[in-house]
Amino acid sequence: MLKYEVVASDLRNRIESGQYKANEQLPTIAEMCKIYGVSEITVKKATEQLAGIGLISTRKGSGSYVKGDVGAFLRDPSAEMSGQMAGFKAEHEQLGAEVTSLVKTFEVIHPEPEVAERLSADAADFVYRIVRVRLADGMPLVVEYTYMPISIVPGLRLADVESSIYEHIEQGLGLRIDSAHRIVRAVMPTPQEREWLGLAPDTPLLEVEQVGFLDDGRPFEYSVARHSGDRYSFHAVAKH
Amino acid sequence: MLKYEVVASDLRNRIESGQYKANEQLPTIAEMCKIYGVSEITVKKATEQLAGIGLISTRKGSGSYVKGDVGAFLRDPSAEMSGQMAGFKAEHEQLGAEVTSLVKTFEVIHPEPEVAERLSADAADFVYRIVRVRLADGMPLVVEYTYMPISIVPGLRLADVESSIYEHIEQGLGLRIDSAHRIVRAVMPTPQEREWLGLAPDTPLLEVEQVGFLDDGRPFEYSVARHSGDRYSFHAVAKH
DNA sequence: AAGTGGTCTAGACCACTTC
DNA sequence: AAGTGGTCTAGACCACTTC
To answer: Which one of A12, A74, A225, B57 has the largest count of C-beta atoms within 10 Å of its C-beta?
Structure first.
């Protein structure tokens, strides 16, 4: 583990265990340098990371403070952090759930104009089109519509689509996933989606439209995920 | 403007103007040091900021790259970035809209248990309860339910509530707003909300539940904002 | 006046990519 | 072997807060 990760994870443990309490001032950066035997910049990087996930706030000329009431926000198991991108399988397995997928469509097509634009692809290129219902412990949670250029993600098989496409991209192809741009909306399900997700009437969905990027900047995925509304929420930390 | 801001904003301009194109490699960090006459850490801070808003990705041992197709994501005017927190008024005035508010309720009450918990307050404390319909250019966009402890935000008047509570907190009280924890969900409107927002039947809302924090870590605001679904979306950048 | 976090420097070392 | 971004150091200076 890197030095700043050691500092950040130790501070995090002390905050979550209540050793540093809500609204309390943390040791100064100079003190933390002595405590952990590291330089100022290393401590700074650790506190920036904690501020980024919303655990502390820092105040110039004054000190660093533990935020009040972070518990409910961080502990919510039905929540995904907007800052993290792990893929459906990794995310739910981390919570101890067994993940399965019903593959409704797995085909290769020419992309519609909107999909082509998002993938920086041409209408003449081939892309996979995948429709999946994804379940955790047998409960249908989300319908995912995924498009990927076959030129970037070659050799995708039904077995990959049934388990985890991200695993095929990272382990199988040796590519590195960097980040994603997401747009979140509230929508109503189609009749088909209502049936697949087993929804009561008048249940809205949370739609997450996403463009995923590799670490060389290329978009490798365009997807629309429509999440069962009463079983899903989305967490974010906003800075002023 | 700070040095790293100068570098970041210059790089951003060159990317958005197309001088550095999608999927293209940026100058190396060492080259940028020479170009801008700054140290490595300063360039690094600038590239980290750009990676944070999803404009570039960096690849160890290889280089920094402009992300493909960032245009649509960054230009969408109906979108709020999850990473930013400006308040409704500042956000929409930036887009050139005239912001008004219909104050439906403005009272002082003892908080319900859930509100008290979020505000780290006691059931015996007094909090403002404010219900507002907020409009941009006369179009109702969102219903906001806001709770704030009177001990932290004293002297709030109807005039503040009608324009901007954040202005009163920052300019009037000299407090500094640091950040907010947000939870986003899809919900159906109540009949009252449907009327206030002028919604067609079967239109869902995007609910943003938020706890706002001052820079000393104290929660000063608990609010639930329910956004008209077809006129609102929420942008985020997720890191792998 | 003393203490605090934020920015910035020159330079070292490392792991990884590219050739 | 050469080039690249990522981490880390010791130290300087500054703006701001606190007393």
So the answer is: B57
Q: Are strands A79-81 and A233-239 parallel, antiparallel or unpaired?
A: parallel
- Same topology between domain B3-73 and domain B76-235: no
Which conformational region is residue B84 in: left (phi greater than 0), alpha (psi within -120 to 50 degrees), or beta? beta
pLDDT band at B233 (very low <50, low <70, confident <90, very high): confident
3-state secondary structure A70-138: CHHHHHCCCEEECCECCCHHHHHHHCCCCEEEEEEEEEEECCCHHHHHHCCCCCCCCEEEEEEEEEECC
CB A235 within 8 A of CB A76: yes
What's the confidence (pLDDT) of residue A179? 94
The predicted pLDDT at position B66 comes to 97
- pLDDT for residue A93: 81
A3-73, CATH topology level:
Arc Repressor Mutant, subunit A (1.10.10)
Give B144-162 pLDDT, tens digit per residue.
Answer: 999 999 999 999 999 999 9
Phi-psi region of B12 (alpha: psi -120 to 50; beta: other; left: phi over 0): alpha
pLDDT at B87: 80
Q: What pLDDT is stored for residue B75 in this prediction?
A: 67
Give the mutation candidate from B20, B73, B213 for the A interface (greatest A CB count, under 10 A): B213
The closest CB to that of B217, out of A65, A84, A182, belongs to: A65
Taking contacts as CB-CB distances below 8 angstroms, the residues of chain A near B66 are: 217
**Domain residue spans of chain B:** 3-73, 76-235
How far apart CA A145 and CA B90 sit, in angstroms, is: 35
Q: Which nucleotides of D are covered by protein (CB under 7 A)?
A: 3-12, 15-18
Q: Which residues of B touch A91 (CB under 8 A)?
A: none
Q: Which residue is nearest to nucleotide D18 (CA to C1')?
A: A62
Distance separating alpha carbons of residues B206 and B142, to the nearest angstrom: 9
Which is it for the CA torsion A81, B234, B68, A130, positive or negative?
positive
d(CA A31, CA B233) in angstroms, rounded, equals: 43
